[in-house]
Design a protein that fits this description.
Layout lengths: L1 E3 L8 H12 L6 E6 L6 H14 L3 E6 L6 H11 L3 E2 L15 H9 L3 H7 L5 H12 L16 E2 L2 H9 L17 E2 L8 H8 L11 H9 L1
Helix pairs in contact: 2-3, 3-4, 7-8, 8-9
Length: 223
Amino acid sequence: MCFSTEDSFRSSLSDLLRVYLAIDKLDMVHRFGVADIVGIATPHQVYELIQNMRQYFCEDIEFHGHNDTGCAIANNFTAFEAGATHIDTSVLGIGERNGITSLAGLVARLYTLVPEVLNRKYSLSYLQKLNQLVAEKIGISIPFEHCLVGEVAFNHKAGVHIKAILNDSRTYETIKPSDFNLNRSVLINHKLTGKASIAYLAHQPCLNLDNFPIQAITKTIKT
């Protein structure tokens, strides 16, 4: 059984602990829930509350955070760091008002720290298909800048960036798109285009423009 308070971060710590301790005495609960139901909490407040609860309870702790102030992913990750065992997420962050924590967003945050764990335990290649399926079924578009699954997530256009990632992708990609069955895009239809991106595309098998003057093509596109 799980017991959760509804508006945990507009309540005093003493009141919260008094309620949780009273419920704990019933010896019926195996998980305590903490909810930032209006998205008002800061990461520091989340960490402090979960840490305080950890001092009193050995039961699982579940965190539920809304995104009204854009802090849902940060707050959920902080809850995890502080000792929470369960994190509520939803596909595309769908939920009341601005939604709750995005599954893809939390996966992106965790991936940069423990990629080998996520790769071992989860089928990351299905994440984009899952988001596309949900978006299609409920008739919405995936936000272009959405973590991992947005259309610009792995797009590169600045010449300096592209030259660097072609040499070592880790320079500007902390997440490997191939782990999610995704591809990076090298864009050239932009004033920031550089010779490295033109050369990269010119040498692709479908174009095979090896004999073309890369510098001249770059200048023309930038113009």
